[in-house]
Amino acid sequence: MAQSVIYADLKFAAGLPSTVPDDDDSPYENVPLGPVSAAPSPGRWTRRWRVPTALLAASLLLLLLLLVATVALGARYWQVTRSLEDTSREHTAEQGRLSQELRAREQSLEQAQLELAWARAELQQAWHEGNITQLELKIRNADLGRTQQELAVLQKEMQEMQGRLNTSESTVSSLRACVHTDCCPRGWVLYRSKCLFISVENKTWQESKQDCIRRSAQLLVQ
């Protein structure tokens, strides 16, 4: 408004209060009239504020809560910062450990690759030697087969020679028996170093015995 009036500084002269209050027409409270103080200097109005006690207590409580919240947030921020620093250090240490383990794994992998290459070379050499050995084995098997065939021929020849030897031994034995017995007379047969006479005539036992006596022999008794 162009012309504003501050009614807080207005003071009224002493007088009788109105007996009939008009609340609808007057926006001001009824205040007791006292002696009028000195008039304020022209062009200057003194402002007086009255703050309620409840509002002041609420403000102080709000400030206290804000202070407590600020302290709590600061402590929480410090804890979070400390936790982040610890986590960062742990992460750095874990990263270093993982890097060392990775380098060790890489070295182990390189060593394993070298050993695998050596094993492959040895396997190829062994396979080559195995092929040579198999070829030699085939050759030796062939030689063994020929040797077995030759052995079978030799065994057959040995059997033939053994038969001939047995025949020769029988002949020698007969010759030796002939030497010891001065051989047998004509018509007699050499049997077990003894000379036997086989009669073709049919005679009784007594007649055969007499015939043997005449021949200076003995009758054979089975």
TrEMBL record:
GO molecular function: transmembrane signaling receptor activity
InterPro entries: C-type_lectin-like/link_sf (IPR016186), CD72 (IPR039689), CTDL_fold (IPR016187)
4Fe-4S in keyword set: no
Keyword Transmembrane part of the UniProt annotation: yes
GO CC, alphabetical: plasma membrane
Positions in coiled-coil regions: 102-171
Keywords: Coiled coil, Membrane, Transmembrane, Transmembrane helix
Positions of transmembrane segments: 54-78
Official protein name in the record: CD72 protein
Protein source organism: Dasyornis broadbenti (rufous bristle-bird)
Gene: Cd72_1
